Structures are given as structure tokens and as C-alpha cells.
Amino acid sequence: MSTITTERLILRPFTETDADKMFKSWTWDERVSRYCRWHPHKSVEETQVLLNHYLQKAKNGFDFRWGIELKSDGSLIGIIDVVDFSHDNRIVNVGYNLAFEHWHKGYATEALKSVIKHLFNNGVEKIIAEHHIDNPASGRVMEKCGMRFIKLSKTQAKFDSDTLCDVKVYEIIKTVEE
Ligand SMILES: CC(C)(COP(=O)(O)OP(=O)(O)OC[C@H]1O[C@@H](n2cnc3c(N)ncnc32)[C@H](O)[C@@H]1OP(=O)(O)O)[C@@H](O)C(=O)NCCC(=O)NCCS
Questions:
Q1: Residues sharing a CB contact under 8 Å with residue 135, sequence separation 6 or more, in sequence order
Q2: What is the set of domains in the chain, with CATH numbers?
């Protein structure tokens, strides 16, 4: 499984002992889930179910999901992953969540930049990301990583709902220099 190291972060695969860290850090938090499809978890058991799914996918060879760890103290502060991909893995859609207390420090940008580079070095040719129109900070992260706004679209607002919400879609295409 691949680990990516940046100036301040280690992006590493999830492990069996992560549920508690994820729950205490971000999966409980409505401020983090507000503009995402998932709902805040009510208990660590709910996070454990999600983690088990991640571990199973990783066991089956899925290598495009990382826990974001701070180099300074080893704490797990978020997740960045490929949330959807084309049948040949050449076009992927990425997502990310950071614990609220670690917002506004440039961590999401640092993580996404490194993941874009990693994906382009591993066969991916186009990376897409989208964010709720009321969540401009996420769009700013995409822009700072060289992604280009391509269109407005609509998508499912929450996993258990038929309600749609407006999203902005960004992309970046691999160039010879990547
Ligand atoms: C979106 C999120 C990942 C950003 O993480 P972060 O580490 O704070 O992002 P960064 O610090 O790298 O960059 C944020 C940028 O957005 C800007 N920003 C913050 N709030 C903003 C707002 N309301 N409007 C416009 N820009 C905003 C910041 O100023 C910064 O840009 P700058 O460096 O040019 O000043 C984080 O807030 C988060 O996890 N949110 C909840 C989950 C989520 O929304 N995930 C994305 C789903 S698409």
C-alpha cells in the first residue's frame, strides 16, 4: 500500500486501530459533514463499520485512499481518497475531509497536491472533484491545486435522500510535465 509524504503530512493507508481516532477527529462532526453526502456518526461503532469497508476494499487491492496524519505529532486529522473512477481507472473523482480544528492551515491543499501528483504517476489521466456551491473553501483548495472549474451540476445531497444539491465541478488533466 502506498504512503505519501509531504512537508507536514503523512498520507498513509488506514489500519485496524483507526476507528477511534477517526470518530474523535472528524466522523462525529456535523461541521465537517455539512456539505458532504455522509451524516455525522453517532457512535464509534458506526465509524468502525465504515473503516471495515475501507480495510476490505484495501485488501481487494484498492490503493487510492489515505488517512491524513500530522508529521508533528502523529495524529490522524482527515481522509483523502478516490471516491469514484472510470472502468479503466484513468478518470477518477477525489474527495477529502479534515477535522474542524485543522482547517485553514493549508493541509487540504498540501494533501490534494500530493495526491494529484501520485495519481498522475500511477496511470490516472484526469482527476475530477466537486463541491457544494455553499462550500467555497473546497473550491479554493481545488483551484490552488491547479484544477479548473468546468461546470455547475446537480448531485445527490445526502446518501439516504432524493434531494439534489448544486455543485461546482473541477478537473485537472495530466500533461507531459506531470
Ligand atoms: C474544505 C476543507 C477540506 C478545506 O481544508 P483546509 O485545510 O482548511 O483548506 P486549505 O487551508 O488548504 O485552503 C482553504 C482555502 O479556502 C479559503 N477559504 C476558506 N473559507 C472560505 C470561504 N468561506 N470562501 C472562500 N474561500 C475560503 C482559504 O482562505 C484558503 O485559501 P487561501 O489559501 O487562498 O487563503 C475543509 O474545510 C473540510 O474538511 N471541510 C469539511 C469537509 C468538506 O467540505 N470536504 C470537501 C467536500 S467537496
A1: 34, 35
A2: 4-173 (3.40.630.30)
3-state secondary structure of 176: coil
Pocket of ligand 1 (CB under 6 A): 32, 35-36, 95-98, 103-109, 131, 135-138, 140-141
CA 122 vs CA 86, 97, 133, 141: distances in Å? 14, 23, 30, 22
9-12 and 4-5 beta bridge pairing: antiparallel
Distance 105 CA to ligand 1 centre (A): 9
- Report the DSSP pairing between strands 76-85 and 65-70: antiparallel
Q: Tens of pLDDT along 131-172?
A: 999 999 999 999 999 999 999 999 999 999 999 999 999 999
Kindly report the CA angle at 50 between 49 and 53, in degrees rounded to 5? Answer: 90
